[in-house]
Amino acid sequence: MSANAMSKKIAPWLEPLWKALDLQSLPNAILLHGQSGIGKFAFSLELSKALLCEGPDSFDQKPCGQCEACRWFASGNHPDFISLLPETHRKLLPHGDFESEDAPKKTKASREDVDGEGSDKKEKKNISIEEARNAIEGLSIGTHRGGNRVILIYPLELLRSDAANTLLKSLEEPPAGTIFILLADRLDRVLPTIRSRCRLLAAPRPDRLLGLEWLRTQLPRIDGLKMADADIESIYDEQGGAPYAVFDSLLARHQRDDKDEFGIAIQASRYLLQSMSQGLRMNWLDAAEKTHKAQFSALLATMQRWVADVQAVGQGASPRYYPKHESTLRGLSQQARPAKLLRFWKSLVQARRSENHPLATRVQLEALLSQYQQAFEA
Questions:
Q1: Which of 9, 37, 113, 198 is the right S-S partner for 31, CB 3.0 to 4.6 Å?
Q2: Domain edge (last residue) among 184, 202, 220
């Protein structure tokens, strides 16, 4: 791929994965999986654009960014690109003002769906059976441009079971020229029947130095942002080494987007960590009260990272997620009862299995934090 096309499109830690692909022998379905916030979605958009590109024949030069197909894609108007995303994720898709005379015109309703301006209703976090059927029902018809058709689905684990079954039928007998690009943050939550029909591609998490270097090159895009390196590194570690997630959270914070999930999760996670660092002295009711409105999965991830570091330090290792809190972690590891802490860890694992459909989030959070506090009781 040309340097121009690679620039700012494919994260450097994902370049080996990109270079290993061959568009001429790509299977009908690939499943890209890996930690959230490491650039999988940007990678998948670039791959979709390359598959639809009508420019140079060489994959090294795709996407060219100059042909009509590339321009349609960049404006969100390519007729052979179908995306299946929950409403909460549609802002990630390309969209703009460019429209070719031949490109299908989007209705006002569809534009409002993409831009998130059509309604004040709460955005859906799951992909419904109706959305899956609408996306797949036209696959038996030939493509508009006579080339490939790409269907992008993310996050795959947010497909409802009935929608997943609809997808499975298409994967069993894929139409010619149709390529499914499926993305999952948690491969263990994808149906085995779907996994078995896809080529699995594991997206690696960057090492800390590379991830931070990339992040610093992106921060100038946030006008007026001023932040010390130490603060950037702390947030980077707290987000589990996911550079794209860190960038999004910093952008949301700088823009003071009170409704942004990343920003809310960051603030809630910070308060949750302050509370958990107190061990037995923690006020778990207050912690639940101050954090329960954040995304439940983000809170669970924060607790898992903190406990993982407590356990690691207790076994003589260095903390992975919160190295700047090593002294606090060491103190907690000496106070904790290993058997109780292990039971708490198992409770977190169990809670994560249903994190996308939490019932009474606050009640679950209170129960978990109470159990965490008890891990430090004699």
A1: 198
A2: 202
Question: How are strands ordered across the β-sheet holding 178-184?
Answer: 81-84, 149-153, 178-184, 29-33, 199-202
- Residues contacting 313, CB < 8 A, separation 6+: 319, 326, 329, 330, 333
What total of structural domains would you count in the chain? 2
Below-70 pLDDT ranges, the chain? 1-8, 58-59, 95-125, 140, 142, 146, 255-263, 356-359
220 falls within a domain: no
Q: Which amino acid is at 358?
A: P
- Domain boundaries, position 196: 3-202
3-state secondary structure 76-137: CCCCCEEEECCHHHHHHCCCCCCCCCCCCCCCHHHHHHHHCCCCCCCCCCCECHHHHHHHHC
Asked if residue 113 lies in contact with residue 87, where contact means CB atoms within 8 angstroms, the answer is yes
- Judge whether 239 lies within some domain: no
Residue-wise pLDDT tens digits, 192-239: 999 999 999 999 999 999 999 999 999 888 887 778 888 888 888 878
Quote the tokens at residue 239: 């987000």
Q: Is residue 235 part of a domain?
A: no
Please give the helix or strand (H or E) that residue 166 lies within, else none. Answer: helix 161-172
Tokens matching residue 10: 């494919």
First to last CA, the chain: 60
Model pTM score: 0.74
Residue 97: count of CB within 10 angstroms of its CB: 6
If asked whether residues 196 and 277 sit together in one domain, one would say no
Question: Does 218 fall in a domain?
Answer: no
On whether the CB atoms of residues 194 and 182 are closer than 8 A, the answer is yes
Taking CA atoms, 227 is separated from 43, 81, 250, 254, in Å, by: 28, 39, 10, 10
Q: CATH number of the domain at 278, please.
A: 1.20.272.10
Burial label for 260, CB within 10 Å (0-12, 13-18, 19+), is middle
Distance of alpha carbon 129 from alpha carbon 134, whole angstroms: 9
